[in-house]
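In this supplementary section we document a worked example of the pipeline. Step one takes a protein sequence of length 431 as its only input; no multiple sequence alignment statistics are reported here. Step two produces a three-dimensional model, which step three serialises into structure tokens for compact storage. The input and output of this example are shown verbatim.
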Amino acid sequence: MKLKIIGAGLAGCEAAWQAAERGIDVTLCEMKPEKYSPAHKSPDFAELVCSNSLRADGIYNAVGLLKEEMRRLGSLIMTCADEHKVPAGGALAVDRGGFSKAVTDRIKAHSRINVEYGEVTEIDPGENVIIAAGPLVSDKLAESISELAGGAYLHFFDAAAPIVSAASIDMTKAFKAARYGKGGADYINCPMTKDEYLKFYKALISAETAELHEFEKNNKVFEGCMPIEVMAKRGEDTMRYGPLKPVGLDNPETGEKYYAVVQLRQDDASASMYNIVGFQTHLKFGEQKRVFGMIPGLENAEFTRYGVMHRNTYLNSPGLLDADYSLKSNPNIFFAGQITGVEGYVESASSGLLAGRYAAERLNGNAPDILPPETAIGALSHYVSNEGISGFQPMNVNYGIITPLSERVRDKRRKAEMVAERSLNIIEKMR
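The serialised model returned by step three reads:
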């Protein structure tokens, strides 16, 4: 049996791997390098563009649990991520280039995966296909998907944070530390006094943003990837309770406490580049250099990538998709990745893992064994297919969507432990 997969991002690569490992001949279609989306630059697969962090790695955190479930289910993405991780405190962060190259090499080396380059512009409703084209799906393919989905699309903005050269950061003003000392001195921290913060805040809320394209003019911003200037306009202290919160970041040498702290996270294995954490932005490039240069330590920062903003597209999945990520109206067509309404790199890869697994089971003549919402990975698929949801928005994995324990547990740590134990027991039985 044959399966076509559109898109070689994290979800598409994971889906291709899972299906091929189950004996399915896969054609993986990728439009790069012939055509690039507004956010992609590398010809390699599974390109990370918004942040190099795959977030918390402990299994008593929802996304950490999801990653451990994926590891036990044979995830290609997690294997490559673990092999290319870089220091990031309690988070899993990777060398983006090394990670993408590793995924690309393994996909191309698999005997059952054939890669076809070029843009796919339409979907044949008679094909066995997984659409993992991503939230930056090309316009022509978007039209074909819209026909399949009955026009039930939603849109939101996504934004990428800028990256600066490590050598250009003034370390006489910045210091290395992780919040509460967790994981070692993995972040560069740029501290601010109240006066410095207020001057930065006023400059940020009055800075000039890039001109909006026609498709961007509904001004809808997804909460999980909010531009820093939009956050700032919500109130003078909003950033200090978000990415600039100073708690747990006292100076390790002097013990000094600060009014606000900007953190920078390592972006590559050689630690030559750092991502400004939480600074997704739609400011003009010149304004980014001017305003972000007001941050102590970044006065002469060299920007290796400015922040950018682009449209992300996703399905109004409840009512359209089943819990196996297949289209209710045409079950031989599956979707995977952020286009389904799962938010985040890890969540996208997890949907590809299940879509590839479920599609392979169906092509092999078996009914898919659906992972239940007692697991983190199953909870995401049940969330996007839940017809009872009103005002559907993309969702990161969280304990709120995982089926609660049958007993009430007051201690949060113990409750998280019990949820993880229950989940991993289920995963072990369904590997």
